[in-house]
Each structure stands twice: as structure tokens, then as C-alpha cells.
Amino acid sequence: MARKRVAILISGRGSNMAALIAAAKDKSYPAEIVLVVSNIADAGGLEIARANGIATETVEHKRFGKDRDAFDRAIHAILEKNNIEIVCLAGFMRLLTPLFVAQWQGRLLNIHPALLPSFKGLDTHARAVETGVKIHGATVHFVVPEVDSGPIVAQAALAVRDDDTPDSLAARVIKLEHRIYPLALKLVAEGRVRIVGGRCVVDTPFGGDTPLIVPQG
Ligand code: GRF
Asked: What is the pLDDT of residues 178-214, one digit of tens each?
């Protein structure tokens, strides 16, 4: 089967983008990263993409002022022109309009640094520490108009330590992100994820019954 043509949308350093690029270097991976689009001209991730021989485009949201529709239309046009089949948001810090989300429904993924539906929005690690949750993690989900919602494709969890700070937690969660985003994209690109009644049904072996219980007692 032909590899799916994927674009990644970024705003910053692009470490998740880099993880997806690394996974897709393997010719047996079912997706190829053909384009990286940034809304910030000097986003660090753009350099990494270019160094990996991947085409980049910058669409500065500032140019569009408050006109979100025009910004999204510009992004959509670039994606269409490049025959993109799946879009991965990876630290893309713009809200997308319902029209754009509808145009890419079932083909638009995002990664969020928390176990959704907990801690939607920003500063997830600070809020996890503040709240005292014992288990925290990351989620890859399909994008729907409501922010940080949408059918969950994959999650990864870790134990929160009593002495964790937002930074120490972020450093461990990002490593999980770099594992589950390539996994989730693989499953979606292989057509093994179906959305049924707002949930993802994934045709793949279950991860196992080993519980993550914190504290250990
Ligand atoms: C990640 O924590 C991701 O979950 C969130 O934004 C951050 C982006 O980091 N959506 P990077 O640019 O992928 O390094």
C-alpha cells in the first residue's frame, strides 16, 4: 500500500515533529512526512525539517490579523497543493476554525501533554503537580472543533513523583510523547483506527493488563 502523505504543523522547537520524521525514515513505516508548515517564521523545528530534506512552508498568522478563516484557508491550500492525506499538529499554537477541522475530519491528529480529558489547555504539567495527581501522561487524539477533545487514539502514562516540578514532569512526559505519536500515526495511516460513536476503535493488540499503580505501597 502506498505510504500516506503527511504534513506536520508546528509553532516551536518541533521535537514531536522530529520523532515523527525519525519514525518515517523507515521505508516500512506507512506514512511519509512530505511537508512541515509553521505559523512562526523562526520556529526551531523548521531548521530540523530542512536538515532532514523535508519541504517547509511558513504561513505567518500575524499577516492575517484577526481573520482566522483566511489563515486557515491559506494553510488548507498548501496542504491541498501538496496532496496531503493526514495532518499532524505538533505544538501548533493556533486554534483552527470549525471549517478547517471539518475539512480534515478523521485525518487531523494532535498531541496533548496530559491524560485527556484531564488538563485540557495550557500549563498541563504545572496543573498536574498542583492538583497532586499520581498518574500523568500524554494523549494523541483526532481534532474536533472543541479544543483538546476528540476521539483518543493513544495514551501513555507515568507515575508522578512527590518531588516532581512542572519541568521535571515535562522532561519525562515528552519522552512518552515521542513514543506514542509515531505509534498513533502508524495506526491511523494503516487504516487500523475507526471512529465509532465518538471513540476510537483500534485494530491492534491490547497493551496488556499490567496496571500502573501509584504509590506502590
Ligand atoms: C508538546 O508538549 C505537545 O504535546 C504540545 O506542545 C508541545 C510541543 O513540543 N502540544 P515540541 O514542539 O513537539 O517539542
From this structure: 999 999 999 999 999 999 999 999 998 888 888 899 9
User: Which amino acid residue places its CA nearest to atom 6 of ligand 1?
Assistant: 91
Counting from 1 in the atom list of ligand 1, the atom nearest the Cα of 44 is 12
Which whole number is the average pLDDT over 47-73? Answer: 97
Burial per residue of 70-98, b for 16 or more beta-carbon CB atoms within 10 angstroms, e otherwise: ebbbbbbebbeeeebbbbbbbbbebebbe
Pair 19, 37: CB distance under 8 Å: no
- Residue 112 is among the residues annotated as catalytic for this protein: yes
What's the whole-number mean pLDDT along residues 3-26?
98
Instruction: Give residue 1 CA to ligand 1 midpoint distance, Å.
Output: 30
* Closest CA to ligand 1's atom 7: 91
Instruction: Write the single-letter amino acid at 52.
Output: N
Domains and CATH numbers, the chain: 4-202 (3.40.50.170)
Instruction: Decide: pTM greater than 0.85.
Output: yes
Q: Are 104 and 87 in contact (CB under 8 A)?
A: yes
Tell me how crowded residue 42 is: count the other CB atoms within 10 A of its CB. Answer: 8
- Asked if 108 and 150 count as a contact pair (C-beta separation under 8 A), the reply is no
Residues with CB under 6 A from ligand 1: 12-17, 90-91, 111-113, 174, 177
**Residue 14 C-alpha to ligand 1 middle, in angstroms?**
7
Instruction: Please name the amino acid found at residue 198.
Output: G
The one-character DSSP state at 170 is: H
Average pLDDT of every residue of the chain? 97
The sign one gets for the Cα dihedral 95, 193, 18, 135 is positive
